[in-house]
Amino acid sequence: MPNEKLMTNAIDASELSFNDFKSIVINDYKIAFESRQASVLGRREVLTGKAKFGIFGDGKEVPQLAMARAFKNGDWRSGYYRDQTFAFATGISTIKEFFAQLYANPTDGADPFSGGRQMNCHFATKSVNEDGSWNDLTQIKNCSSDISPTGGQMARLVGLAYASKLFRQNKELDYLKHFSVNGNEVAFGTIGNASTSEGVFFEAINAAGVLQIPMAVSIWDDAYGISVPAKYQTTKEDISEVLKGFQRNADQPGYEIYKVKGWDYPALCEVYEKAINVCREEHVPVLIHVTELTQPQGHSTSGSHERYKSKDRLSWETEYDCIQKMRAWMLESAVATEEEIAEVEKNAKVFVRNAQKEAWNEFLDSIKPEQKQVVDLISSMAKHQPELAKIAANLTSTADAQRREVFTAARKAIRLSAGLSSPERNELLAWYKQQSRFNHDRYNSKLHTNGKESPDMIAVVDAVYDEQSKMVDGREVLNACFNENFARDPRLVAFGEDLGNIGDVNQGFAGLQAKYGELRITDTGIREMTIMGQGIGLAMRGLKPIAEIQYLDYLIFALNVLSDDLASLSYRTKGIQKAPVIVRTRGHRLEGIWHSGSPISMILGALRGMHLCVPRNMTQAAGMYNTLFRADEPAVVIECLNGYRLKEKLPGNVGDFTVPLGKAEVLEEGTDITVISYGSSLRIVQEAAEELSLLGISVEIIDPQTLLPFDTTQVCVNSLAKTNKLLVVDEDVPGGASAYILQKVLEEQKGYFHLDGQPKTLSAKAHRPPFGSDGDYFSKPSVDDVIETIYQMMHDANPTKYPSIFE
Which positions fall inside the Transketolase-like pyrimidine-binding domain (predicted)? Predict the structure, then answer.
């Protein structure tokens, strides 16, 4: 059957007969040849219009066979979109599933990696079940979900390997039997030679060398990056030469670095066996530079490599094609005869062609019933509206119609029949509404895991105070919260710049490294991308990481990793993988261009799929952490940078009380105007409200507490129904987070209908805040700004009662 999985297994030549050895080699060749045929046929399917785009692993087949041999149950891959042969060889993918993904088939089970949401060669294995519970990750060959940005896989790779170190060295984790077997798992990474020019590659290589973790990086080197040759990519045109300084020696830890030709099958098998044994047993990172590879079909279906490669290069690539070289070696070594190999090749072509046909037919068959239903329904409507017959005829004649064509026809018929009532139209409307629900599941679901450990499922526990409750610095509330939770849950780990030894720059973790050890609370270098990747990888392996970014402004350095990888993980795998990372940072008001930022609109735009918590003080932050520690979805928590030394009352249940996400809170009730703000700006608003009350203006102040999700119980619109006036106060740039809040309240919550005047926003200036207290005053909303803006709004509504201030 075309769906069968043919896996490669480790070769122990000392225990094999010649016939056994021959069988293994021929099976490897079969996998490689099938993979090449899948690439060739896949490109043809794109060029004939059946698929939108294709990117393939042709030319990389043989080294991936060798890598697959060393890959064991429990291991992890964080790879590159040319690893299809590896996926076939390990059983992670079948040929048929490869084509189903090429066609973007969203039918359940067709594309088990992404549910039709990612292009071909983007693989993933099932880590979690529909309810969010974990699978036994030690019993499968694990593949973290691929992303297209080249080099982007490297950050997460660090975390996947670091988890093995923690599982081996921290015996408190021994009970997590479904996640590791004594930390023996290797994290395999792959990357193209040109992408080693990316900053995240060097950051990850350095981080792994410092951490000494079982990370095995394979570099597929075909001497080009799309059309750009290595002389423009890499110093000395050789990345392993560049990285020689990372090679370990007797006195200094580092890497083991290997270099091997990508067409030399026996040498590749030997190198991978040796390298991965070192990596697995000694927990030493290894780098395998696989050279002299080719790319027979060019970079992708968007162009031809004949445009930029010389005739000599093209001739060399034909001669040194890894499959041709393996074929020649098999003949020279008498492993197989010409007839045997020819038979394998003939059968492989038939097998791949049949798999492709099955995948294409199943894709169309999933749509044809919908196409027929719509044609029949519109044809029935045409009895009353003859002009609709053309729509039905066009859809009938559309060969290989996809769901878009079916829905376009249905919606056009519904539009053209607006105002007319008939049983046939009602039937089409019912069909459309039902299918829209199905399509939401196919194309829009699982932005969040929404499993049994979703933040929504965490019980709300109020903070408890009594006569003995102390007033302490806000930082002490956080410190007590972290202490309680680290004692409760050994899965919790925290890391970041200055987090360990000194307990972070604001002392939230003061003394905790000494109490819980360096494995659980640790310093890192200045490397924001791989701090985030460290968190993603640990979370994918069942741990509960707190990845700290020292200041909110510095989150920009890691935004690519968070946006491309973490935020989209649940969505792009349709819920089969999760990574409950908590990104801890601090921001808002302080001093200077790079220490007072509030780039919230950038975060809102980039991090859908994560929760965004903006607590007004450290008690609220602690409650949000308590919720997130018990939940299984990723979040960013932005602590108020100017709140660590403000006094707060310490809850008696500081490690247990929870603040629910998405639940806005009315801080002060009022009748004249609704003011929505968050974080540090709330104190500004509260101070302004005191003076406004003396002017006869009653302000209702609302803290949304989280921006993702935003006010799920509609506290804001209920307030607006009472006051009829709205002001949003925000430290972001004009039209930033304030525009997001307006869209939520006025459009989503339908607050527009309650307004009796123009809604206003009061934001920071368009530039970053200048240094100093005066710089803060003249660039971000001040108490004076809030008072005067609200007063002006009241003046506009009732100039007699509220005479103009500045006239």
Answer: 472-646
Structure tokens at 169: 């060295």
Q: What is the pLDDT of residue 5?
A: 52
Sign, CA dihedral 143-144-150-152, equals: negative
Nearest to 723 by CA among 784, 805, 668, 648: 668
- Catalytic choice (289, 299, 588, 595): 595
Alpha helical stretches, state H, 48-116: 61-70, 84-90, 95-102
Query: Tokens 């103009």 identify what position?
Result: 804
Q: Determine the Cα–Cα distance for residues 718 and 724; give it in Å rounded to an integer.
A: 10
Reading the block at residue 496, the tokens are 């970041």
> d(Cα 289, Cα 93) in Å, to the nearest integer?
25
Contacts for 277 with CB less than 8 Å, ≥ 6 apart = none
Backbone angles phi, psi at 459, to 5 degrees: -60, 140
Backbone angles phi, psi at 491, to 5 degrees: -75, -20
d(CA 410, CA 413): 5
- Residue ranges, the chain, pLDDT below 50: 1
Bridge partners, 638 (sequence order): 585
- Read off the tokens for 270: 């030997």
Q: Rounded CA gap, 225 and 668, in Å?
A: 59
Please say whether the beta carbons of 256 and 275 come within 8 A: yes
Secondary structure of residue 748 in the 3-state scheme: helix
Rg (CA), the chain: 30
3-state secondary structure at position 277: helix
Rounded CA-CA distance 516/235 in Å is 43
CA distance 430 to 443: 20
Give the pLDDT of residue 1: 46
Give 749's strand partners.
Answer: none
Of residues 363, 348, 355, the one with CA closest to residue 2: 355
Return the structure tokens found at 747: 């459009």
Q: Is the distance from CB of 104 to CB of 46 less than 8 angstroms?
A: no
Tell if the pTM clears 0.85, that is, is over it: yes
373-394 pLDDT, tens per residue?
999 999 999 998 999 999 999 9
Helix (H) or strand (E) segment spanning residue 679: none
So what's the pLDDT on residue 561?
98
Burial class (CB in 10 A: 0-12, 13-18, 19+), 527: buried
Instruction: State the SS3 of 201-247.
Output: HHHHHHHHHHHCCCEEEEEECCCEECCEEHHHCCHHHCHHHHHHHHE
pLDDT on residue 683: 97
Helix (H) or strand (E) holding 257: strand 256-261
Q: Residue 391's beta-bridge partner residues?
A: none
Using CA atoms, how far residue 20 sits from 11, 25, 27, 88, 464, in Å, is 10, 9, 11, 21, 70
Which CA distances in Å does 231 have to 149, 257, 290? 22, 22, 17
- Give the phi and the psi of residue 303 in degrees, each rounded to 5: -170, 175
Residues 6+ apart with CB under 8 A from 789: 727, 760, 762
Is the Cβ–Cβ distance between 79 and 113 less than 8 Å? no
What 3-state class would DSSP assign to 544?
strand
| CA–CA dist 116, 101 (Å, integer) | 6
**Three-state helix/strand/coil letters over 550-617:** CCHHHHHHHHHHHHHHHCCHHHHCCCCCCCCCEEEEEECCCCCCCCCCCCHHHHHHHCECEEEECCCC
Q: Element (H or E) spanning 523, and its range?
A: strand 521-523
**Residue 594: its pLDDT value, please?**
85
pLDDT of 595 reads 83
The three-state secondary structure class of 802 is coil
Catalytic site includes residue 122? no
